[in-house]
Amino acid sequence: MLKKTLILFLLAGFTTFAFGQQSKEELQRKQQDLVKEINSLNRTLGEIRKSKKQSVGQLELVKRKIRAREELITNINRDIRGLNNNIYLSTLEINKLKKELDTLKGQYAQSLLFAYKNRSNYDYLNFIFSSASFNDAIKRITYLKSYRDYREQQVATIEKTQQLIQDKIASLNNNKLQKSQALQDQGKQLQVLETDRKERDQVVSQLKSKENDIAKEIKNRDRQRQKMKDAIAAIIRREQKEAMERARLAKLREAEKLKKEREAKAAAARASASSSNTAATKTTAPAAESAPEGVATNKTKGGRVYSPFESTEEGRRESINFESGRGNLPWPVDAGYVSIHFGSYSVPGSKIRGQSDGISISLPVGASVKAVAEGEVSSVFDLGGEQAVLVRHGKYFTTYSHLSSVNVSRGQEVRAGTLIGRAGANEAGEGEVLFMVTNEKGTPLNPEGWLRRK
Fold first, then answer.
1. Phi and psi at residue 76, in whole multiples of 5°?
2. Pick from 198, 222, 389, 395: CA 20 to 30 A from residue 183's CA?
């Protein structure tokens, strides 16, 4: 019974240790990732600060750093709670093992006392030779041997229990040390978080003090945004017209092919028909349908509405592949952070308001910008001194702008990871890339809903 109890304690301790270690490793991995992100944000902010010009993008990066810092503190708190649980469970197990050890020592002391009282060899011999029969003597010898083995087992169990207690105490002390270190780290992060919040308030204050300048900058962005929107819409209209023409010609070719097949079948039927007028009448082919003069903009096939951009098998495949990658497309840059998100944005406590049809990514000037999916370059154009590339993915389009140089040309086939160009600088001299996702109607879509989470 005692041995079974000890085994249960060992198994329980091992299970707790295994699950605790797994959770701890996950927490440590997350903490390392957050620390890397915060360090990278600090480097990016350091580059931005060199321009000595506050921007909405800088405010967003500071806010992002605060969110990462808060998440790191939350993660540390989870670690501390886990350590507290381990300390509590270890303390309980140590107390149980100590009680078990006291019981084992008491039982062993009783067996030693019994052995001492019956230590004479004469008593042992008398116990054996007083047997009523030979079989009874054998049983008594076996009993004495079993009793000796039991005492040895008691000693082994006591030693194992003592060792287990020592291991548990060492683990307990280690958890206490880790908790102390985690508490120190938590205190440091809370202090830095307060500094980050002060930096955010300072940036907000400076932006508010330069509200008119920022408002002008946003107006310039809005003008650029409208120009970009008009340019994309014009390219999509051109592409749509070309796609509709391709679809119309394809349908005409298909109608002509069907007409020739019907005529061939009718001719064969007439050649093999009987000479009777009735048979000849029966085998006369119906008049061919006239070829359509145009093509519908949409058609339903298998429950899916197809646009003119999907009039070819390649166009359908690219659309479906792009759709299936929703939420898992690679980012167009290897490094950088979203400084302006999709949709409306503002500066708290001010009248500064803006709108973005994509996401602005802050990154080093000259950084690589890559295609996010398979497609064809629809256009490479210049918009107010900045270069932009539009790539078609079936009925979807991705736009990469604020480029200092371009590495592709119109009509070029690209794949995910193909180098589109290099990041340029915005008005504040900061490295920035604007990435957009648009459907066949020219409606901007939130890119962050298509890209995989970092």
1. -65, -40
2. 198
